[in-house]
Write a structure and sequence with these properties.
By secondary structure, this protein is α/β, with parallel strands linked by helices. The chain is built from 10 helices and 13 strands. The protein is globular, with a radius of gyration of 19 Å. Bound molecules: 1-O-phosphono-alpha-D-glucopyranose.
Length: about 280
Amino acid sequence: MKVVIPAAGLGRRFLPATKSMPKEMLPVVDRPVIHYVVEEAVQAGATDLVIVTGRGKRAVEDYFDHNPDLGNVGEAPELEDLEALTRKVSIFYIRQRMPRGLADAIHCAKHFVANEPFGVLLGDTINVCTPPLLRQLHDRFVALGGKHSIISVETVPDEKVSDYGIVKGREIQPGVFEVEDMVEKPSLENAPSRLGITGAYFLTPGIFPIIEGLPPDSRGEVQLTTALNILAKKEKVYAVTFEGKRYDIGDRGIWLRTNIEFALKHPVLRTAVKDACRELGP
Ligand code: G1P
């Protein structure tokens, strides 16, 4: 399976931290977000990954490279997991020349994915799911005929509706919606439902010519949601709910909370974090 990881976004929600540092490198406990994303892709069966980067994102490439200053794994055992991960997959990089939106970033990978269906995982979102979320989407893709794009959705609270793409769909089986319409970051009044797009996709290559035909919006961005809306009218697109939990690390509050949640599961840090929560709590 080929997987595209868009990691070119500006991280506006996390400024000033992300002014000179990729949001994909924000640490969650002791690993950057992108580590979890690549790990998920590999666990889902990815053989080849392309990370779409951009200006100011070189730290992402350096992260998956060998660092001669740190010596080999024997000298830095903390790097063992990372080394093992990079041995399991081929990672390629493409630079998006300027931030022109999620659809444009995915389009940068057109030649890489060639004419096959492919997975997309956002570089700033961790999914903790069994089976891995992309595997769940792939399995749905196969079960629903192997011809239609699949996007993951979850019910979002009212105050988060305007942060996400929102789907209007007809539930054809439990947790599977045939997409009728999609609105990118609507106001609460204009939201057609509370089903928010979580940022994992299994797409057909039919998306590429659609992206090519789309003009940028008022912010100069080409939105994936707009392209998917057109795709849904040509081929069916299904939105599916999933087993597991998604962490949108580009959001400061969620990033902080995720660090605490993950640290509470960490064998070494657990006690210190529990103590801190007890001491600092109300
Ligand atoms: C993107 C998509 C949006 C989706 C979101 C998930 O928005 O455009 O539809 O709900 O990812 O995180 P972004 O977060 O890049 O603004």
